[in-house]
Design brief:
581 residues; 3 domains; alpha/beta; single chain; nine-stranded mixed beta sheet; Spore Coat Polysaccharide Biosynthesis Protein SpsA, Chain A
Length: 581
């Protein structure tokens, strides 16, 4: 597979960055500017070492700026004696605190085309920045992840001069030998399992580590920047939103670094998970295992169902929306698109109002927090993972959305077109994967069909609405009055399915048991037969031994009578005398 290009941007399929070939380190001419953003909190000693290491980088100094964001909490931070020429310190903007807040402050101040996050307790190797930036010269929608190892510094830190000399001379491993460091185990296992993220089309964002990563400023702005309400887990959450903007994640093993100190997750893993998981469950719908409650609404929906209600009958709109809201997939939202600004408060005839259907639709759902009203839905539903465009008058079954999205994930389809009615005018629903649509919109030429690019980068396919349980409003029954009842029905159906499967497994086990018993019987027969053969063999050996002893006796007797037999032989062979003739 090769990556096509349009306007200099290669087209990567899913997350397979393999067809991209970056320039060799030291054998190319960089042109893009980079802003290295270093969030810092009460860490002057390690910050001095990080800046000293950045001063020894191979990436051109005139293309690099370093922004240290002082997050407060102690004496004001200062720039050490050894630091890149274009280094400045900015305070975190008022109103917040924490790494995400500081990173966003630095991103807002950044002037580079690429933003490179780097923590203030990191010692990057000489080619660290260059190794990451060479990818950003290939495509503008890549997120590049550096490689780090944790080192125990309880025995003390080297000086800034020692760090600078080691980095500039390519001797960091002498300062921090590999045998004294530990890898980022979970990340390394993830990369090994997914062929360095090439075989990881949906959840590569999970290894987005803010300690060392880089992203184009354009892509960062499109994703909305950092979620400054988070004080932990912000890098995973940002990685998810970057993925919904079509990002491709690339691990760069040559962007090596040493983390000064042990990994927080490694030493307090259970506490970190307890803190992060509830917050990530609200913001990252791809983490399905964190969203197990059957009815809860989440901050970021998994699916946004967009229904164009302009000109539609109120009864059709209600049937569609009620069917969606009764879905056994709870983390969804509904967006109703229509000319809502036309609904004024001026005097009108209530029953002869030409906008009565529109007014009834708004009155029915305006107090439901799952339903939003807009006149322009935009090109995608980010940060939701999916958008379903569903025409008014068509009703999904209780499990339709759950099953349809699960099926789309089997091959990571970018768009699934669902034929609802093929008689006369073609009527379709359309399931769109947000990441696929946003990437295609970035890559598509001005006169190029968006679906062609989606097909090239993610894949598209067609399916039947009947197969997934879509029905016209006239044929659909009223949804259950209780979402819990619908969920209970689904669970009962699942239980019956697994019960039947268990019965089949039990039958298989019985068959295998009978087969094993048969084989056991055969084994017993073979054992008896073998015993008989062994007994026969013993008897034959005895008889053979007797024959050998008899042969020995005969040979001995022949030897004893040999002189006599030789005399007889000579006598018989001697010529007879003439008297005998």
């Amino acid at each position: 597979m090769t990556a096509g290009t349009t306007g200099g941007q290669p087209r990567v399929r899913l997350n397979d960055h393999g067809p991209l070939t970056p320039a060799g380190l030291g054998a190319w001419t960089p042109t893009r500017t980079v802003s290295v953003v270093v969030p810092a909190y009460r860490c002057q000693e390690t910050l001095d070492l990080t800046l000293a290491a950045l001063a020894g980088q191979s990436y051109p100094a005139h293309l690099t700026e370093v922004i240290v964001v002082d997050d407060g909490g102690g004496p004001a931070l200062r720039i050490g004696e050894i630091a890149p020429e274009r280094t400045r310190i900015v305070p975190s903007r008022p109103g917040g605190w924490g790494r995400a807040w500081a990173c966003q402050t630095g991103a807002d101040a950044a002037e580079g085309e690429v933003v490179h996050w780097l923590d203030a307790d990191m010692v990057p190797f000489r080619e660290h920045v260059e190794a990451q930036l060479r990818w950003h010269h290939l495509a503008d929608y890549l997120v590049v992840l550096g490689s780090l190892r944790f080192t125990d510094v309880s025995a003390g830190l080297p000086s800034a001069a020692e760090v600078h000399a080691a980095v500039a001379g390519g001797r960091v491993e002498e300062l921090f030998p590999p045998e004294t460091t530990e890898p980022h185990d979970w990340v390394e296992e993830f990369l090994a399992r997914t062929d360095d993220l090439r075989d990881c089309p949906i959840d590569a964002y999970n290894v987005h580590c803010g300690a060392t990563a880089s992203v184009s400023a354009r892509l960062l702005r499109a994703a909305g920047g950092m979620d400054t309400s988070l004080v932990l887990g912000e890098d995973t959450e940002l990685g998810y939103r970057l993925a919904q903007q079509g990002a491709v994640f690339v691990p760069e093993r040559e962007a090596r670094s040493r983390h000064l100190g042990l990994h927080t997750v490694g030493t307090r893993e259970a506490e970190v998970k307890r803190h992060n998981w509830p917050l990530l469950a609200e913001r990252v719908p791809e983490l399905r295992w964190l969203r197990t409650h059957p009815t809860r609404r989440r901050l970021v929906p998994y699916v946004d169902v967009v229904v164009d209600v302009a000109g539609a009958r109120y009864e059709d709109v209600r049937a569609t929306v009620d069917g969606v809201l009764a879905s056994t997939l709870p983390d969804l939202a509904v967006t109703l698109v229509g000319p809502w600004s036309a609904l004024t408060a001026e005097r009108r005839s209530p029953l002869d109002d030409p906008l009565l259907d529109l007014r009834l639709a708004r009155g029915t759902y305006e107090h439901d927090g799952r339903v939003a009203f807009t006149e322009d839905p935009g090109g995608d539903s980010a940060p939701a993972m999916f958008r379903l465009r569903l025409p008014a008058g068509w009703v999904p079954g209780p499990d339709t959305l759950r099953n349809l999205t699960a099926d789309a994930d089997t091959d990571c389809a970018g768009v699934v077109d669902v034929v609802l009615d093929g008689h006369g005018d073609l009527v379709t629903a359309r399931l769109e994967r947000t990441a696929a649509v946003t990437r295609a919109r970035f890559l598509a030429a001005a006169d190029e069909d968006l679906d062609d690019v989606v097909h090239q980068t993610f894949g598209t396919r067609w399916t039947s609405g009947e197969m997934w349980g879509f029905l016209p409003a006239s044929a659909a029954g009223a949804p259950s009055t209780s979402r819990s009842n619908a969920e209970l029905t689904r669970l009962r159906n699942e239980a019956e399915k697994w019960k039947a499967q268990a019965a089949r497994w039990k039958g298989e086990a019985t068959r295998w048991k009978a087969e094993a018993a048969g084989r056991k019987k055969n084994a017993a027969e073979w054992k008896a037969e073998a015993t008989r053969w062994r007994r026969s063999a013993v008897q034959w050996r005895r008889e053979l031994s007797q024959l050998r002893r008899a042969r020995y006796r005969w040979r001995r007797r022949l030897a004893e009578h040999a002189p006599f037999l030789r005399t007889v032989r000579k006598t018989l062979s001697r010529p007879q005398d003439s008297d005998d003739r």
